[in-house]
Amino acid sequence: MSIQQKKIEKQLSLPLKNAVQMSVRNLRIRFGRSIIITMSILLGIAFLMSVLANNAFTMSLVHRGPEDIKLLLTADLEEVRTRQIWLVSLSLLVCTVGIINAMLMSVTERSREIGTMKCLGALDKFVVELFLLESLAHGIFGSIVGSIIGVITMTFVYMFHYGGLIIRIFPVGTVVRYMLFTTLLGTFLAVVGALYPAYVSARMEPAEAIRRQI
Amino acid sequence: MPREAIVRTIGVKKNFMLGKVALHVLKGINIEILKGEYISIMGPSGSGKTTLFNMIGGLDKPSEGKVYIDEVDVAQLDAYELAWLRCRKIGYIFQSFNLIPVMSALENVMLPMIFAGMSTDESREKAKTLLETVGLGERLNHKPFELSGGQQQRVAVARALANDPAIILADEPTGNLDLKTGKEIINLLREMNKEKGVSIITATHDLKMLDVSDRVIWLRDGMIERVEARENIDIKVGEVEGEESG
Q: φ, ψ for residue A180 (rounded to 5)?
């Protein structure tokens, strides 16, 4: 036992910087795939944001708009709300499953690479970090762009219906709050969606990962 | 003074479960590989070559028996120690090269040094020197897909040498190469073996490997059939070739 302690040390954990560098490079090289994953987040979040922006605009019209519009809108507010919750939940679910699927595919495709890195001395932790960081990048980018697209689309829709009125009563505070919320939610979902694939990839035995034929 | 053993296996057995039937792949292997030796493990497909190779490389643990790498029992190591062992003590070379596709030749060679905690500048310098040693000084920034098979395997050899390992494990290193390139890689391995004193262990079908090996371990049905020293091999090559092609 004493000989063993003398000869073998524990592998160091790499600073996060290395994982960040490598995942940035992966994202750049596998740009096409990155775009697809980002799109699934982007579309989900854009949809959510458009629904939320719709709410914000409606409320703004109800409180600050002319009397006739107010009456018209208040009538079926409740019914519309319930339907929206369903739509939003479903779209987010689809978006998360999409991320998990895309990341699992990425793990399978890169199993040889993961196995090689483990042979060269990478710890499981490092592999997990790589996958989570990549997903984080997808999440942040997809959600920010998605929420902006959502707001812009809804603004155009309302401008089409109500003209310049919507610009005058634009609920800036509420919309910014909703955008922050959707961005955080999208990023969170992207990371959660990547947890299982990252775990799968880290658990892979190097010998098995290298010999696996794809 | 007797040479130190770098790898020792004692009664190594390995069983795989195929459904409910146990498949005995290795049936008790005892070998001792000395520091600086060039060893080839030969045998037909299904003889347990690859499984034995994985045991020696710390990539898999035996069902029974012990594997000592540099006098350390591999089964006793935790994940961190195993990663350290793979990083510092062992260099791996694979049949399909296994370079990281998104990285240049230089970055591929730097990777094990980064994992070992070396600074970027230091590892870049060393990677350059290593790539020059294997004859790729002109292609530092090429990506793997821009290199031929032989060149990729040279990068892999440089990568395997990155942390000055005690052992290089090469699994069918010439399996995906043509005759001439294969011969070049074998000579390169032999050169590194002589210059750096690193033990080289290859699992192979390739009879070209016989010329340079100090000893050849013949495996059949999960057992060691015979171990031959080089001086006895040359005479037998013809006979062996007949056997293989038959």
A: -60, -45
Number of separate domains in chain B:
1
Q: Is B80 on the interface with A (CB under 8 A)?
A: yes
* Least CB–CB distance from B87: residue in A29, A30, A121: A121
Helix (H, G, I), strand (E, B) or coil at B49: helix
Query: CB within 8 A of A93, min separation 6: which ones?
Result: none
B97 close to A (CB below 8 A): no
- For residue A183, give both structure tokens: 């961005």
pTM of the model: 0.81
Residue B115: domain span: 38-48+78-245
Asked whether residue B101 is domain-assigned, the answer is yes
Q: Is there a domain that residue B62 lies in?
A: no
| Interchain contact B54–A (C-beta under 8 A) | yes
| H helix intervals, chain A | 2-7, 16-29, 31-64, 67-75, 77-109, 111-119, 124-162, 165-168, 172-203, 206-211
- C-alpha A169/C-alpha A60 separation (Å) is 7
Asked whether the beta carbons of B174 and B154 are under 8 A apart, the reply is: no
CB atoms A112 and B86 under 8 Å: no
Task: Grade residue A214 by pLDDT with cuts at 50, 70 and 90.
Answer: very low
The residue that leads in pLDDT, A36 or A151, is A151
Q: Locate the chain A residue with the closest alpha carbon to B165.
A: A120
Classify the complex by whether its ipTM is higher than 0.90, answering yes or no. Answer: no
In this complex, which of A25, A122, A207 lies closest to B102 when CB atoms are compared? A25
* H/E element, B158: helix B149-160
* Residue B181 resides in a domain: yes
Phi/psi of residue A209, each to 5°?
Answer: -65, -35
With b for 16 or more beta-carbon neighbours within 10 A and e for fewer, the A8-44 pattern comes to beebeebeeebbeebbeebbeebeebbeebbbbbbbb
Quick check: B71 and A7 CB within 8 A?
Answer: yes
CB B209 within 8 A of CB B202: yes
B53 residue type, one letter: F
Confirm whether B24 is domain-assigned. Answer: no
Q: Helix or strand or coil: residue B5?
A: strand
CATH label of the domain that carries residue B179: 3.40.50.300
If DSSP codes are grouped into helix, strand and coil, which group holds residue A170?
coil
Instruction: Give dist(CA B122, CA B105) in Å, integer.
Output: 16
